[in-house]
Design goal:
The chain is α/β, with parallel strands linked by helices. Helix content is 43%, strand content 15%. Helix 1 runs parallel beside helix 11, helix 5 packs across helix 7 and helix 10 runs parallel beside helix 11.
Length: 251
Amino acid sequence: MRRPMVAGNWKMHGTRASVAELIEGVRRQALPVDVEVAVFPSCLHVAQVVEGLSGLPVMVGGQDCAVEASQGALTGEVAASQLRDAGCALVLVGHSERRLLLAESDEWVVRKFAAAQSCGLVPVLCVGETLAQREAGETLEVVGRQLAAVIDACGVAAFGRAVVAYEPVWAIGSGLTASPDQAQEVHAAIRAQLAAADAEVAQGVRILYGGSVKAVNAAELFGMPDIDGGLVGGASLNADEFGAICRAAGS
């Protein structure tokens, strides 16, 4: 039985004051014990969040890591080893905003995935298609290629220590959401692709849905057989909304 997971990606939001308020809001939530909860603050606020959520069953992750696992001469980047040292347990890799806006290639994402695992972090591999790709009927091809890049380079066994997040690019921050059936189709395809290499790994890996997840649609999405929770963007900046989504995953 896969334990559901809800992860809040705070993206490039927050000041010390607003993050302190959000921490207090999260601390007030009744979080379900059968759901794994994580938040991904900006790198500047990781230490504040790790300290502020101490004692709660909430993991903290980084939003990105460098392709090099160890410290070195790479100005402006943050190594996976540094995230681990700061108290992070996970890290996002391959988020669509980085793939599209910063031109991160599949090869770059693979290197970050490997760097994260080498330092004991759990990579959350983000995959997904643009609106143009969906309208062209290329969704499963695009997602399959992004997933295959990691399988080919790191081996399918690596997904025993990873999470996958399907995030249709057209649904991120747009207010649009893939229907439960649309999302389930892609999640099932991801699991089938993994199962073709290792059925046991495929059965155990958690696949999250990301794309305008809110409290009002969370329960229906999470009710699909291959959707194991959510990677939540804007809604995670509201502690009450985020708490409601977490509870929906546990219902």
